Amino acid sequence: MELIVDHLSHSYNTLEVLHDVSFATRLGEILAIVGPSGCGKSTLLSIVGGLLQPTSGQIATRGAPPAGSLNPLTFVFQDFALLPWRTVADNVGFPLEHRGLAATERKEIIADALRRTGLSEFAGVLPKQLSGGMRQRVGIARALVVRPAILLMDEPLSALDSQARDLLIDDFSKLMAGESMSAIYVTHNLEEAVRLADRVLVFSRRPGRIRDIISIPMRRGERSSAGAVAKLAELQSQLWSLIRDEAAYADREMANV
Known about the structure:
By secondary structure, this protein is α/β, with parallel strands linked by helices.
């Protein structure tokens, strides 16, 4: 399933945060969105996920979601949003409750999501017993359990230390390999963007517009070689050059609000 964003604009009262944004996802791709603070990235994700109605424009889909999909568009949150009194397995299985599934089928789906995210041996553990990186794995497993077509990820690694973030970047890249599932990945971290994404949408300062679209000219599985790392560093510098001046302006603007 592909997502089509068509001439989308949004305002909060008189404050316009998005202006005439159009793009389409591709099957199996990770599409990163970067830009200055306050440029409407999270607002866009909320509109795509149905949490907000846009002021103008529309969201459409093309093609069918995966077989058995219970929720084609699914969020992965920055703050994990786990229920502390529930085990890992029970947190992962939460979206399956009240879906009318047989107990055996529900257990099989949960077990598959745990296996894919490397959490099988932690099924009976409480969130407080896990590291930040492992808690975010639980959040990803919980998203996978509904068999989504598109993951909506809003700064999913920003609460993690650099070591945990690096490990989860590698794991998420492997998880997405060969999948028909896509992801829209909002981040302030340009290194994350170039390491994970197939394309990067660069937004202007508020009201957010698409200033440029940068394609990453290598497969995700080929990005660990020395030559690839050097190329990715160049692309990261290119992204920073596109947003540096507007990011500084946006920071001054927000400081004066």
